[in-house]
Every structure is written in C-alpha cells, then in structure tokens.
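Model: You mentioned two targets. I'll fold them one after the other.
Researcher: Yes, keep them separate.
Model: Target one:
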Amino acid sequence: MINFEKYKLNNGLTVLLHKDDSTPLVAVNVLYKVGSRNELAHKTGFAHLFEHLMFGGSANVPDFDTPIQEAGGENNAFTNNDLTNFYDIVPAENIETALWLESDRMLQLNFNQKSLDIQKKVVIEEFKETSINKPYGDFWHELSALAYKKHPYRWPTIGLKKEHIEDAELNDVIDFFKTHYHPGNAVLVICGKFDLENVKFLIDKWFSNIPPVDIEAQTIEFEPIQSEFRQKILIKDVPSAAIHMAFHMPERLHNEFGVYDLISDILSSGKSSRFYTKLVKKTNVFSNLDAYITGSIDPGLFVIEAKLQSNDDIDEARKLIWKELDQLKEDEIESEELQKVKNSLISSICFSEVSILHKAINLSYFEMLGDATLINKQEGEYIHIIAADIKRVANEIFDLNNCSELVYQTKESGF
C-alpha cells in the first residue's frame, strides 16, 4: 500500500506527497498532460521537441543540468502519446534545488531562436537516426497510419514527418508552451525522505506564484470502429522479412484492461510463453516474436511483432500466428498457466513499488488518469481474472476485420 497526501494549489497544480524514510534520496516528478495526441495534424512532434527544449534554460536558470549535478542529483525525461514526464533524483537535503528548477521552467522557458534552432537540429537528427536510417524505423509511422484514420494516435511521438519540426517557428512553440505547460495541466509528485511541513512550504514558495492559465479543454477526435482487414506491404532494405499485426483494444481505464494485458503475456512473456515455446523454438520460421499492448489513455492497440527467417516464410508465419490466436479463442487456458502469468505480472507490480522514482512516476500517471489511488488497485485488475475471461476477450479482439497488418519484405525478394 502506497500512502500519499494530495492537494491542489490555487493556480491548479496538483501535488502528491509520499514519504519513504528508507532512502536518503528524494524523487521530484513533474508530469504534463501533453503528448503527441494533443498535437495538430500539420504540426506534429512538438511534445517530443519540448522534452528537449525544457532543458535549454528558463527565466532564471541558464542551464538545467548543472545545478542538478552540483546538488548530487540526476534528471531525465520521456514523452509518449499521452504525456510528457520530467524527473529529478537528489539527496533529501537538496530537494529545494529540484523544486526551484522545475518551477522556473514551468514559469517560463528561455525562448529564443538560437535555443530553438539547436534543439530542432537535435530532434531532426534523432528522427533521421531512429525513423529513416534504421531498419524498420518507420514501423510506428506505417502501423499507426494503417490502424488509425481519425485519432491523433495515427502519428508516433517523434512526429509524422521531420518537416514539421524543421518548419516550426518561435511563435509556434511559444503558443504550444502556453497551452500545455502550466500548473493546471501538471502533476507534481514528491517521493522519498522529507519533512512534510517543510516540503509543503517549499512547494508553496516556488510554485504558488506561477499564474494559472485558463485554456479550453481540447477535443480529441474519436476513432471509428475498424470494420475491414487492412494490409500494407513494404519492400525495404531490412535484414529480414517481418509481420506486424495491430488489433484495436480498449483504453487504459477499461474494466477489462487487465485481461488484454494478461493475454499479451500468455503469448509472449518469457521463454515459457506460447509464442516462444511453440513458434520460435519449434519452427524455423521466426527469429523473434513478441506481443504487447500500448496501454494508452484512449483506445489503443494490441500489437504482434514477428521477425522472420526469410520472405518465403511470410504466409506460413501468418498462418502459425493466427493458429495460436484461434486456440486462445477456442480453448480455455489451463489454470496453472494462467496463474503463472498472473503471478509474474503481480510480482512486477510489487517490485515497481520499491523504487521512489517508479512510485513517483506511477502516482503521477494514475493521477493523470483521474485517480492516484488506482496505484494501490493494480493487483486487483488481475487477481480475479479467470480462464473464461481470456477466451471471451480473445474472441472479441482477434477478429480479422479488427486487424491492421504491416508486412516488410526484403529487397532480395525480387518483388
């Protein structure tokens, strides 16, 4: 059980505090409720760009990293479809340094053309390295566009095209900052060793004077139900053929999210999983086979990734994968197999509660979803799942008309 105190400042900033005296450190986590889903279709990649810009200096701090390092700490950030998360880990006695730094960049980034040009160059190089020059690097661009037609999940976090970042102007990023990086759109979580009254005083000192922003809630376009099989075949300079399948599934807060999560683990978690034991180990078709879920705020995807031995294996690979999916639909899973997967997943949840950083990030995430107390209810999503649930949900999701299939063929195929 993770106990915490929650309150709000007058400017709308949500604060969660969790004491853990077993460590001499403190994790300061600031989550902004902005990801690629909040971007415009003609201006994508901005949330990821801001992950970089937020380290480029702010109103009173010319360089973010140096004060953290001098305080004996470390920091980093990540962005996805739904959020941008910044965290600092510092010795408990230096917590004020982290709060000062986070408050200053929430108050006002140091916007100038030089800083923007530098970070644009960094992001564009990252785009080229990960999405253009890397084998299968365009996978998320292609699969997202195939599976989504309306929702902004149809482009990946790094952006739809590098030109959107190349063409970004100073006024564009200033507007994006004012819209999304303000107290009312943020969650501040502090985990670790601290004096409760002192940390409240410091939070008030550094954050309460940041002015609130009154922004109209954004409307995200709803994705219609997919009703036909979609397929795209790419002939690329890749090391081997590959098949990627994406099935639409419910959002993270859906009451059966845990069932979908368990199905992905039944198929591909570890060397006792069905994909590994039956398809990777016992056939010469696959070099690698994986299944996972995106776990997004809005309805997401159940993804299967298969790397193959050759182009000649594509049809056989597809048949073998569907055979395993159909078996989940037809036969109830043995209780021993189900319990083993449940135990592994629940153990992972328990281990995540050891680290102050993981606790800070998870508290922020569940608060963004609407209720931080969900952090203490994760095990309950899995404990009561039975074999009939697995079979029923498998029948719901693994429908050919709900499938978007992306196929990579190597150039040697001759097509």
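Model: Target two:
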Amino acid sequence: MKLTVALCTYKRYDLLRLAIESLTRQTLPQDQFEVLVVDNSPDRDASWREQQPYEHIGNLRWVHEAIPGLSNARNVAMRLANAPLVAYLDDDAIADPVWAESLCRTFDEFGETCHVVGGRVRPIWSEPRPAWLADEMLGYVSVVDHGDEARFLTDQEWVAGANITYRTEVLRRFGGFDVSLGRVGSGSSLMSNEEVALTDQIKAHGGRVVYDPVAAVDHLVEAGRLRQSWFRRRVAWQAVSDRVRGAVSSEAVDVERAWNDIKDFFLHCPPSERTVRALALQQNDPGKFRWQLATIYNFTSVMLSGMHEVDDE
C-alpha cells in the first residue's frame, strides 16, 4: 500500500461519482492504493444509501463523519489512512489516469525532505470565464499551473487543497489541519488557510513542497463562484482567515498604509459612488475589479485590527 486517496464530501454525491470513477481508471495498481470517502453530510441514512453503488470497488472505504467541517473530515482521513502517503482530492475534481502513480514516483524521486506534493489543477468552467476574471485571480478558484517541470516550490508559490498530498507521518506529527480554519457545511462561511497553515508548519521544520505537473486534475469551477459577489465574499473571508491563522496580527497590519489605500480607492471613484456601495458595485474592467477586491481585503483587515480614526477638526 503506497497511497491513501481521501475524498471529503458534503451532500455532493453527483459530483463525487465522477471523482470516484476517475480513481478506478488509475495506472497505479489497485492493491497499491486505497480510496477513503469521508462523508460529512448530516443524514447518515442517506450516506449509507449513497455508498451502495461503490461496494464492488475493492479498495474503497466509506466513512460517515457527523462532526461538520472540512478540516475535521480531512483529519478523520489522516487518522484512518493505511498508507505512508495521503492525497486529498476534492469531490468535484477528476484525476488524470497517471495521477496516483505520478504522486508516488515524485515523493520517491525528491527524497525525504519532500513532505508535500501539489499537482496541476485545470479548470472545468461551468459557464464561460468572465472577462473581468484576470489570470491573477485564478488562484481564488484553485487553478494551479507552475509550468511543465516537477520541482521544489519557492516560498512565494503555492499549491491547492483540491490536489495536495502529504507524508502521513508528517501530517500526524503536526496534528493535521486546524479545525478553526477551512469550510464548514455548504459554504456559508468561506474560511480558508487550513492547508497554508499546515504547510507553513511543515516548512518551518525543514520539510519542502514539490510541484508535480503530471499529477494533474480537472476541477469544477461552479457557476456560483463566477460571480463578483462570490469573489467579494471570498476576499473578505480571506482577511478573516489570515487573522485567525495569525498571519496578520493587529501589530503586523500597516494600518496607515492600508487606510490610505482604501481612501485612494474611494477618491478615484466617481463622486456619486464615494460611499461604501462602491465596494459592491459590478466592475467590468479586470484592473478595477482587482482594486475593489484589494480594498475589501484592506477594509476588513483594518477593522479586525481594532483601528479607529478621529475626525479632523
């Protein structure tokens, strides 16, 4: 047994089916990896019914986990994994046939300091990509492409939780994923950073992250995530996530700089839009939309920092 593939899901059985089917077509022999479905849906009976079509798959286990939260579900998979590597694949992702085999080979080739491997993530657009969605924002929908060469990543580069693999022993050593971070349920909260926080811990203790372009997946970008309103929510929650993770403390926030950037944004708005509604207006220009998102992030950050301002006399 080389690899445990963890599929954490919440009431998305139609998408999950495609992910599981992609794992039945892997070039890695079935006796060398296992598929572990952690169903976080609230209805245990429905979960039992949904697992029936997969009982013939010899290397698949299905577990119902009543406690909600993606980080918790991932930790359940970590504890139940039988293999030295555990790969997390989103339930709306479809793995290339060589995905599992390439992950195992990459860990072997890059040696003991390789503790994390992330693969290429290609988007499946549920509807045409909007003109305002610039390349610089594709990370928000988990698109990852660092080129065609397998290599150690720099500190400025990242991999996505939709397609990420860890050494199981390393995961357990650091206690898994922080349950105060990550999504819960159907996504009313867009908390994130659970993979970032864990990876930062691993790197701080000498572990390294490798990018494997061959271990690629196709990942659904749902229509709801192609709305500017979703990006605004996502960026505001990112500011909260950074605060909870400790990446941004009250002392670390450059409040003066952030506040000046916020005021600069409003000063460049037409006079009729120089109110908080400017943070929610549709922006057709990609550059202006990125500026709006940056302002939302800054505004959320400075409010969380506890700043205050006194009116000029």
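Researcher: Noted. Anything on target two?
Model: Residues 279 and 292 are 6 Å apart (CA to CA).
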